[in-house]
Structures are given as structure tokens and as C-alpha cells.
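Page 42, continued from yesterday. The earlier attempt failed because a stray header line got pasted into the input along with the sequence. Redoing it now with the clean sequence only.
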Amino acid sequence: MPEWRVTISNDCVCTQSDLKLSCDGFQTTEAIDSLVMSKWGEECLINDAQPIVSFSNVSFNYAWITSFPFNTLSSQTNCS
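This time it went through. C-alpha cells are written below.
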């Protein structure tokens, strides 16, 4: 099974939290740490809803026949 790596980058000067991705139909044969990505129905919660600081990344791997097109559903922007 091919392995795919997903890297979510926060290229904003603001912190992003409560990041949710569309993941309807997402499948993997490889376990993903639920603190990094957890699936709830058709949504995936990233980084356990915790802040992703500016100019940083969150990554995870999954294994499936084809890559999956994750799309952002929502996030909270926190600027100081």
C-alpha cells in the first residue's frame, strides 16, 4: 500500500486553531495519532483543535491506494 504524507502549513502571522478538514470517504490502513488528526463523520479535526502557531506545520502519514484531497472546512484565526 502506498504511504502518503500530509503537511498542513500555517503560513499566516496569526495562530490557527480548531482546524477542520473535509474527509468524507477518507480511508487508511495505517493508524494516525488522534492528537494529530481525528475523524468525526465527514470531518477531520487537526491537532486536537489546539493552536497551530504562525509559520509552523502539522504532519501525518496515511496508507491507501490513492491520495486523498483534503479541503479546509473551517478554523479559528487568533491574532494578537
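Notes: Strands lie at 3-10, 15-22, 37-40, 43-46, 56-63, 71-78.
Reminder to self: strip header lines before submitting.
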